[in-house]
Amino acid sequence: MAALYNGLMRGEKPEGELRRGWTTGACATAAVKAAFAALRTGEFPDPVSITLPKGETPAFPLALEEKGEGWARAGIIKDAGDDPDVTHGCMVVATVREGGEGVRFRAGPGVGMVTKGGLPIPPGEPAINPVPRQMMRDVIAELGGTGVEIEISIPGGEVLALKTWNPRLGIAGGLSILGTTGIVNPFSCAAWIASIHRGIDVARAMGLRHVAGCTGSTSEDAVRNRYKLPLEAMLDMGDFAGGLLKYLRTHPVARVTIGGGFGKISKLGQGALDLHSGRSQVDLDWLADQCPELPRTKVLAANTAQEVLEMAGGIDLAQRVAAAGLATVRDVLKGAPVVADVIIVSRQGDIIAHAA
């Protein structure tokens, strides 16, 4: 068992299963830790271990080590496992300089800058998402640092970004540093949906009366905490709302909760059952219909669903979207003996709407 666990920490796969990988955020954090350790001790730890948000401790081999007067640089090749990730095989580089106040972030070559609203990071900031930023702050604090400048770069990232949604979202000049768990779970529609079905089978066999399907770790944590559900009740739904709901139609449990962020639940409210960004998009016309109090032209000019939510102000737009999502859920269940509710969770992990 220890050997299997250690293999999984290295991204290895049990026979017959897809191999998982690591996010750009995890790679950047490991590179930051290696570079800052070299600044402090003169030596680069290789491999370098970090602690992910869920407590796992993978180790990353270094592909680049450079050091000069007052700075150090480390690079890690991103391994996305068996996921067809556009950033698989790219090098994530961190350059660390000590001095100044607090931990400051810069976008190096190949890392984008945010130019539009509605994203987790405000305009004018490097496209380094909140969880990776916190992970980097944590490794700096772990090594006793206070004032540090961190520059993240991805050679060739400007070209790779053209294959992503970044240009449409207003992220200019490169890729984003992403991830909420540090782990890239390999993307296989059939395998993922099959695992959802097996999760429902297990829950039914255990006699569980309440299960939950969530789009990501933030919504999963919020829903599980609200209802105090056991781990076996948490179905790793991801983007496959249809795969979960259609199976529950013929293999019912007493209650199901669907949880997700505002954008994902907006797509569910529109009637989409595959919530992946590559296969469904938020329809701003539909979103404008949900908040007629706002000028339609203003909604249609928004960059993201989150931006519409922010401009809605005192309008209870999230609750309206949750209700629309619940209507889709009930339509798919087609009268199965399953009581359903839908929860929308903010990026900070707070429940902002509940339709039941």
Q: What this model shows, in words?
A:
The protein is α/β, with parallel strands linked by helices. The protein contains 13 helices and 18 strands. The strands form six sheets. Strands 4-5-6-10-7 form a five-stranded mixed β-sheet. A five-stranded mixed β-sheet has the order 15-14-16-17-18, sandwiched between helices. It has a two-stranded antiparallel ribbon with strand order 1-13. Strand 17 and strand 18 (351-355) form a beta hairpin. Helix 2 (24-41) packs parallel to helix 3 (130-142) and helix 6 packs parallel to helix 8. The chain is globular, with a radius of gyration of 21 Å.
Please tag this protein with its features.
37% helix; 5-stranded mixed β-sheet; disordered N terminus; alpha/beta; 13 helices; single chain; 356 residues
Spell out the blueprint of helices and strands.
Elements: H1 2-9, E1 21-22, H2 24-41, E2 48-49, E3 59-60, E4 64-68, E5 71-77, E6 91-98, E7 103-107, E8 110-111, E9 113-114, H3 130-142, E10 148-153, H4 157-161, H5 166-169, E11 171-172, E12 174-175, E13 183-184, H6 189-205, E14 210-214, H7 217-227, E15 234-235, H8 241-250, E16 255-260, H9 262-270, H10 284-290, H11 296-300, H12 305-312, H13 317-333, E17 339-345, E18 351-355
Parallel strand pairs: 7-10, 8-12, 14-15, 14-16, 16-17
Antiparallel strand pairs: 1-13, 2-3, 4-5, 5-6, 6-10, 9-11, 17-18
Helix pairs in contact: 2-3, 6-8, 9-13
Main beta sheet strand tally, sense and closure: 5 strands, mixed
**From the alpha-carbon coordinates, what is the Rg to the nearest angstrom?**
21 Å
Q: Which descriptor suits the 3D outline?
A: globular
- Structural class determined from secondary elements: alpha/beta
Q: What is the mean pLDDT?
A: 90
Largest beta sheet: strand ordering:
4-5-6-10-7
Helix content range: 25-40%
Strand content bin: 15-25%
Topology, number of strands: 18
Rounded to the nearest angstrom, the distance between the terminal CA atoms is 42 Å
Low-confidence stretches: 1-16
Q: What is the number of helices?
A: 13
